[in-house]
Amino acid sequence: MSAAANEAAESSHAYAVYEAKGEFKKHVFKLHKLGDDELELRVTHSGICHSDIHTIDGDWGNKFDIPIVPGHEIVGQITKLGPNVAKLRPDFKIGTRVGVGPQALACQSCTQCKVDRQQYCTGTRAMTYGEQLPDGYTTRGGYASFHRVDCRFAVLVPEKLDPANAAPLLCAGITVYAPLKKLNVGPGMKVAIIGIGGLGHCAVQFANALGADVTAISRSAAKEDDAKKLGAHHFLLSTDQDAVKAAAGTFDVILNTVSANIDFNAMLGLVAPQGTFATVGAPPDPMSIQTFAVIFRGITIMGSLIGSPAQMEEMLKLCAEKDIVCQTEVLPFDKVNEGIQKVRDNNVRFRVVMEMPADATYAE
Ligand code: NAP
Ligand code: ZN
User: Fold this and answer.
1) Which of 85, 98, 188, 327 is the most exposed place for a label (fewest CB within 10 A)?
2) Distance of alpha carbon 1 from alpha carbon 163, whole angstroms
């Protein structure tokens, strides 16, 4: 198969893993029948999120249908439109640049969907990869040349944004933007971001753009300069016990983005009385916290899952307006195993994004 940029496809050239912790191998799959509400996009850029690694490593104890094609930071151009798309998204045309994040489907009628929080849908919901759609098709993600999705889970990517740098916003960006907005982060608030990786480097930029006094908390001293360039006003090395002690009880909001277990009690000690410790990081082990660390200072512990498509479009517009730019290392698609290893090794500033080959097929 060979397809030009705006040409619809029947099959997709992907990379997939065939066993937990396995290497990525080439995988061609037949695209499912385009639904009435769906669109097809030719993927141009696909980010590597740490959730992809948790998934393929079996960190979350989840079983998945193999082969699995991950990827939920997808940018591409529309190549095909189902008959209902003109009504649902009149602005989507063949060639429009869109993005797709971690969610593929929601019921659109439960309480959460009605208030535009489709990520917490209590009805039929499916994520972008490794989950079943109502027709029995197991979703496949963005490590692929073509992708088909309900048009309500595709978002417009403003022309001003570079597509490679926009890709991480579709998961890393929205996952931190949504809780910062929910917590009304703004001027006069002291906000700390723990873990300066894919999510964390977006969070520092958003918290700064929203007007907060921002501290980056990292175990990597080498990230201080970059964190400050991204908009952190202060840097706290989490392994420096004196510095951690000096910062006790000072943050109104702490947002944890770490992919591994941390000393939650030490970090809770940094939250101001009646402040909030929010976590989006999803390490495999349970969070262990001392209840007194929370009770005695009235601390709220909060979790947050991605964001809704409407919030994604709001965030993308803000990025275009305020010049919020993800820092990416762009690799060709066939270097997927190298990209995954860089993320595993915490050796990336700050997101690996894969660029698809121009003809949408593998080089043989
Ligand atoms: P990432 O790019 O790998 O960044 C994670 C950062 O965590 C690293 O850069 C590092 O920052 C810190 N870290 C890693 N290992 C650590 C350790 N052993 N101890 C202390 N710090 C450590 O990952 P990501 O893509 O940003 O994802 C972060 C987490 O968010 C993952 O668990 C992912 O599954 C989760 N996630 C959740 C949602 C959601 O909806 N809630 C959505 C997407 C991702 P420093 O070097 O600065 O310490
Ligand atoms: Zn993600």
Assistant:
1) 188
2) 25
Cα 335 to chain centroid distance, Å, stands at 20
Alpha helices in the chain (DSSP H): 50-56, 85-88, 111-114, 163-166, 172-182, 198-209, 224-230, 241-246, 264-268, 291-295, 309-322, 336-344
Contact 193, 216 (CB under 8 A): yes
Q: State the distance from the centre of ligand 1 to the C-alpha of 280, rounded, in angstroms.
A: 9
- β 11-17/24-30 pair status: antiparallel
Q: Which residues line ligand 1 (CB under 6 A)?
A: 49-51, 54, 171-172, 175, 195-200, 218-220, 223, 257-260, 262, 280-283, 304-306, 343, 346
Q: What is the pLDDT of residues 8-43, one digit of tens each?
A: 678 999 999 999 899 999 999 999 999 999 999 999
What backbone phi and psi angles, to 5 degrees, belong to 338? -65, -45
What are the tokens at 123?
Answer: 């009805």
- The list of the chain residues with pLDDT below 70 reads 1-8, 363-364
Q: List own/partner pairs for 246-251 with CB under 8 A and 24 or more apart.
A: 247/215, 249/273, 249/297, 250/190, 251/190, 251/191, 251/192, 251/215, 251/275
State in Å: Cα 50 to ligand 2 middle: 6
217-257 pLDDT per residue, tens:
999 999 999 999 999 999 999 999 999 999 999 999 999 99
| Cβ pair 72, 181 in contact under 8 A | no
Atom nearest to 283 CA in ligand 1: 32
Residue 178 near residue 151 (C-beta atoms within 8 A): no
Q: For residues 187 and 214, is the Cβ–Cβ distance under 8 A?
A: no
**What does DSSP assign to residue 138?**
B
- The answer to whether the beta carbons of residues 146 and 7 sit under 8 Å apart is no
Residue 361 phi/psi, 5-degree rounding, is -130, 170
Of 268, 305, 306, the residue nearest 288 (C-alpha): 268
